[in-house]
């Protein structure tokens, strides 16, 4: 197996220890996200994914002023110190990519292709996940570390109000990234024989 694509696939990991330095210019970060938004596929070419990128001070605002108070309001008092420590780790990164789906695009497909109406919400989730994966892998290929978080829907309204995001967009995940300040944890693999089945191979 050759090429840089699988090098990037293999070296993408979850990295929690991040510093708030960047490893490439912001314009390059924007270009990576632009290219992913343009070229990652979507079901029936719906292009239902929306992406919000928060860098530097805006990233810190997200974690310190929005996520922390939202989590503190619902966390049991004894759980808050460890939650706060975890959230400090995310705030300590350089940026966050927030992945949304626009339900208007999903509804339009449901109207147009009634036969698959019940499938489009699921395919919208798949579409969003493909964007998450492409951007996660691409940012790490550039030398960033990143991890994927899910504080939605707790934080959706505040984010919409702060960065002028339509309330109806559905937030799916938050990819935190920054300069790696630690290594990925050890990862174990289930036997491939339990997970992969090939029939009809000729050579
Ligand atoms: C769909 C999905 C959801 C995930 N959600 C979270 C999450 O909410 N918080 C977190 O810290 N990691 C999350 N992760 C990261 C996984 O725990 C991680 O990818 C997995 O343990 C494999 O490790 P690796 O990313 O280093 O390969 C998620 C990963 C995927 C693919």
General description of the model:
This protein has 203 residues and is α+β, with helices and mostly antiparallel strands. It has one domain: NADH Oxidase, CATH 3.40.109. Helix content is 45%, strand content 16%. Strands 1, 2, 3, 4 and 5 form a 5-stranded antiparallel sheet that branches. α1 (4-11) crosses α6 (120-141), α2 runs antiparallel to α6 (120-141) and α3 packs antiparallel against α4 (80-91). The model has no long low-confidence stretch (mean pLDDT 97). The structure holds flavin mononucleotide (FMN). Flavin mononucleotide (FMN) binds next to β4. Residues 9-179 form the Nitroreductase domain. This is Nitroreductase.
Topology:
Layout: H1 4-11, E1 18-19, H2 26-39, E2 49-55, H3 57-74, H4 80-91, E3 95-101, H5 103-112, H6 120-141, E4 145-149, H7 156-163, E5 170-180
Antiparallel strand pairs: 1-5, 2-3, 3-5, 4-5
Helix pairs in contact: 1-6, 2-6, 3-4
Considering the chains and any ligands shown, give keywords for the structure:
45% helix, NADH Oxidase, 203 residues, binds flavin mononucleotide, 16% strand, alpha+beta
